[in-house]
User: Fold these one by one.
Assistant:
Number 1:
Amino acid sequence: MDLQAAVKESLQLLYDDYLTSPGSLSYIGEIAEKHEIGKHQLGKYMQEEGYIKDQAFLPTDFRCRITLIGINEIDPNYIPDMESKIISTLGTLGGRQDAFEVLDLEPKDDVRIRDIVSYLENKRMLENTMYGPQQIIIQLTLRGQQYYEDNKPNWL
């Protein structure tokens, strides 16, 4: 039984699914079985660590989605890269922009955009976010604008 190997493999599967089909739930039961760990034991551990969300403990399997904490375990550059792209673009262009255009993502990536926008709102870098059909309009806060100005040489 290797819990850490099962967690790492599960996070990689969840991350890959997040990038290709962000709104869907992924099943990790086979990975648990492969590592001789109970499906619910693996799911409970990952839930307690904050790696997953929208979990469903099913009688014969376990399904969930990855969180930004889980993504950070697999790809530590994902959040900083997304954050940098949003802040540098908004700082350069000013005003309000569509997050889909800023991140060059498609409507199927709505969950990915909402996750990073929510993260930046919690950091007080974005404000007055407007959610529309296939559009998420974002704007830097004064704090976000100051962060851009302080780090501008890194982005040019």
Number 2:
Amino acid sequence: MTNFQVLHDFLNGSSNVRILILDNNNIQFCCQYEEYFPVDEIYQKYDLILIPGWVHAEVSHSETRLFYLARLPKPLINLLEEEDYLPLVAFEDERLMEVFKGASSAYPKSQKFFKQLKEKINRNGEIPDGWISDYYENGFDIRENGVGVELRKNAGEVSILSLAFLLVHKYSSKISQITISSSDKGSWDIKHKILDYIGSRQVLRIPTPPVPITFKSADVLIAEAIKAKTIGFDDITQLRPNPRTCIFVQNLSDGTSENYQCVIDTPAFIEMLKDIDKIHLLF
């Protein structure tokens, strides 16, 4: 049985499913600070946890992270881009190409790949069987991690957000929300690039109103823990040593609100959380 079939059977037998899709950076954060974010607590709001194949490949470089995944208290399905994504669009290769193209529209190497792929299809009159594997192998810049392992930059984030919209397209009647567990700002940007791209080209069927796709970054986890009083303000310096981009809504006294997206250092972040009832952190 394919992993897609496991997913299909789960969703078909359920309703109002709350899905969490994992990114490697948040897995690392939660592993490192599990004393502050117990595994049984931070996943209790979800019914199903998903991890794309290229994210799992990054996780697999650490036995600690693999052990963490093995202890998740909810069902976990690893969906492989090469095998499990096409069934989400009824095996329509062109449609999946458009989703990937929209998700990676900010990356020149990915756009070059799709340009060359289109030229090849026009010449030969057929779609190459291994185009998805070829895309992940050759459509992303390569970087090395600290132990010399080659990683495809942004491949995990593209997989995560592509998966989220494919799920909304196929199973919107079964899903109540999708949350992205990632602290990579690129994930936020990709969400809006896909929305613009598929909306203008009608690539996917997205219901109105759409299924919410939200983010649980490390900063959101910290803000939730402060609100629940499971950590104190003195803990934040250890949990958040460096400035990060925050995206939040500030509620004003007259009932209006303002959206902000800015880099905030840790002392300013702590001060912001001291007045937490006036803000809603989105990322």
